[in-house]
Write a structure and sequence with these properties.
- The chain has 2 domains: 262 residues, 2-Layer Sandwich (Cytochrome Bc1 Complex, Chain A, domain 1); 193 residues, Metalloenzyme, LuxS/M16 peptidase-like (Cytochrome Bc1 Complex, Chain A, domain 1, 2-Layer Sandwich), CATH 3.30.830.
- The strands form 2 sheets. A 7-stranded mixed sheet has the order 1-2-3-7-4-6-5, sandwiched between helices. The protein has a 5-stranded mixed sheet with strand order 8-12-9-11-10.
- It has 19 helices and 12 strands.
- It starts with 10 loop residues before the first helix and ends in a 9-residue tail after the last helix.
- It is α+β, with helices and mostly antiparallel strands and 490 residues long.
- Helices cover 43% and strands 18% of the residues.
Amino acid sequence: MKKGMIKKRYGIIIILSALFVSILFLSAGCATTQTAELKEDFYSSIQKIGNENDNIYQFTLPNGIKVYVFQQPKDEVDEQSTNFYKSVEVSYIFKNVPLCMHNLPAGTQNALTSYLVAMPGKKYDTDKISALLNMGYLLNFDLDINDDYIEYYVEGSSTHLSSYLTDIAADMFSKTIATNINYQAWMKDFSKIANSYKYDLQYYSKRLALTNAFYNTFYGASLDTSDSYLKISYNSLSKLYSRLIQPKNLTIIVRGGKMSPSVIADILWEKFSFMKNRKTDIDNLTFTEVDRTKLSKKNLETYSSSDSKRSLISCFFPGPLNTSKDYAPFNIACDVLNNKLFINVRIKNNLVYDIYSYVASLNQSWGYIFLQTNNPENSMKIVKQTIKDLITNGITEFDLESFNNSLFTDYYLYSSYGKGKYYLFHDVVSLLNEQIDSYYANFLKTYKNVTIAEVNEVIKKYFDYFYWGFIAPDANTIKNTDKSLFFLHP
């Protein structure tokens, strides 16, 4: 499974925000420390999951926080896995971001994610965290922002599991949203970052395509702009905090050597029992597959840049939910499309420098196409014909066999051990809210059982709405290619 399509790291914004907040001499409240003990019958709820060679455990704390303990084997071939046998990484993943962002200004999730780090807490601030990193008490502290979730992760010695690796997160998640901050001034830092997106032209071509693809979907609020940040206020930040920072949205992964799940449960409950679920205004909102009748009827966004020596073209088309029976066939369909595009556009006609397709795996999956070319008009004609042929004729036994051979080879070479196995497990946990053990343990079987008929049915069902982001060196190139960028049923 691939991670979300526009995941971002916000270290720079955290530094800017911390500086701004420190100037205001503000501090946020923190919940008082409390001693909490689990009942004796809780420990029987700890379950071993995964395959027979895995040492992975799961349990749910009494307040609803889901926990996974990934015991790293001692003898692994890659350095990262060997290091994690000696140390511990704790990932704190808040899911359901698209639902929690309902009717809030785009970028509010990025501001809140940074706020929880930058705003001084009762015990920790950015200066203290930096000092712990410099002194070696922490090996890593970072965050990721994904369209579906936000994640904080802390790495250090196992001796610090009951202190820094959990105390910092507990301090962050118990903060309150301050009322005495000039949010409009603070948001100017974020606005400047949003203005810089176009400097990475390939990334910006994705953003252009998503402008229309995400319109009127649950992901509409993930496309932050310089203007959207200026709409963020105390009220919007406070509302997102109330919706998102709750036990029911939090999943914790503890990755390390041979660790006792029971001991970890005791530590985590002591640190996070203060977190309580609350009623919010979105409790009756359910994440559903995109309503195709409400999708945007505009399918093209363009940008001319003299810095671009070639045309960069990105495309997104909506697929099924990742819990749908159509999800595995959709992955296969996009992999077959990837191979055919490479053969037809690159090998046979030598029209592109780069071309590929894959599934951007979010709760709502999206097919993705990217090409880099000096001849966009003719390249797009072949892309269009390739997709039309797949819709009309479907895939072949050879296509399906090639996919399975590639998948099994990649799995056994990369995802059946070491860091590759953990990445697969992490992606499954972070992107699914249900069926986690089943999907992870039966990863290969799920794809092996897919039939040609199922793939062809999915192609006819989902290869329909295509949204394009087109960056070219000049306006004439865009004008000459415009008619080749198809939309509905090419």
